[in-house]
TrEMBL record:
Residues 2-179 form the Aminopeptidase N-like N-terminal domain. This is Thyrotropin releasing hormone degrading enzyme. Pfam families: Peptidase_M1_N. GO terms for molecular function: metalloaminopeptidase activity; peptide binding; zinc ion binding. Keywords: Aminopeptidase, Hydrolase, Protease. The keyword Hydrolase applies. GO terms for biological process: peptide catabolic process; proteolysis. One of its GO terms (cellular component) is membrane. SUPFAM superfamilies: Leukotriene A4 hydrolase N-terminal domain. The keyword Hydrolase applies. InterPro entries: Aminopeptidase_N-like_N, Aminopeptidase_N-like_N_sf, Peptidase_M1, Peptidase_M1_aminopeptidases. It comes from the Eukaryota. It comes from Molossus molossus.
């Protein structure tokens, strides 16, 4: 779950990671960079309950978050790791960053991601190396004046009275973190379906969508 505050370029997040413990250990180490971790919880299941966390710390030299437990995790067991954190929407082209454009004399902002090759750790704590693969289920909360996008289609959108909306996206296939992406913008889009049944969307400002055309053959092109 990610909540984006575009007015001051910050965001808060909550990640829930299911981890498989292969060897008994009192430590969980995963990648994290430029995030402020507020809380860490580890749980086995509803019956066994929580595993007490002795502490946690970020190690910037290797861009990792180290979680120290009060007891050893058992080998060949699954655990849930929950991390609550916050960070900046950076002004650089890595991680979760902001960009802008000018429309009718007004500068407008959007938030987008660039995680390749190992920059997902700047947006959320994760196992951020291409060898590690997982499925991802993303939820993004944003002001209703914006549109959120991710790899998968939106399953449900929950609108709140205070002008915010939470988009819950479908689960991704098994993949590396650098394939994950999301965007928060006030663009609009057009869609078509290719001959092979793939839905293709192109986003742009409303004023430029007249330059986007869909061919009768279901191929997609941009007419410049």
């Amino acid at each position: 779950m990610l909540t984006a505050f575009m007015e001051n370029f910050t965001f808060s997040g909550e990640v829930n990671v299911e981890i498989a413990c292969r060897n008994a250990t009192r430590y969980v180490v995963l990648h994290a960079s430029r995030v402020a971790v507020e809380k860490v919880q580890v749980a086995e299941d509803r019956v066994a309950g929580a595993v007490p966390v002795a502490g946690f710390f970020l190690y910037p030299q290797t861009q990792v978050l180290v979680v120290v437990l009060n007891r050893t995790l058992d080998a060949q067991r699954n655990y849930n790791l929950k991390i609550i954190y916050n960070a900046l929407i950076e002004n650089e082209l890595l991680g979760f960053f902001r960009s802008s454009y000018v429309l009718h004399g007004e500068r407008r902002f959007l938030g987008v991601t660039q995680f390749s090759p190992t920059h997902a750790r700047k947006a959320f704590p994760c196992f951020d190396e291409p060898i590690y693969k997982a499925t991802f289920k993303i939820s993004i909360k944003h002001q209703a004046t914006y549109l959120s996008l991710s790899n998968m289609p939106v399953e449900t959108s929950v609108f709140e009275e205070d002008g915010w909306v939470t988009d819950h996206f479908s689960q991704t296939p098994l993949m590396s973190t650098y394939y994950l992406a999301w965007a928060i913008c006030n663009f609009t889009y057009r869609e078509t379906i290719t001959k092979s049944g793939v839905v293709v969307s192109i986003l742009n400002l409303m004023m430029f969508l007249d330059y986007v055309h869909t061919a009768k053959s279901s191929d997609f092109w941009i007419n410049k």
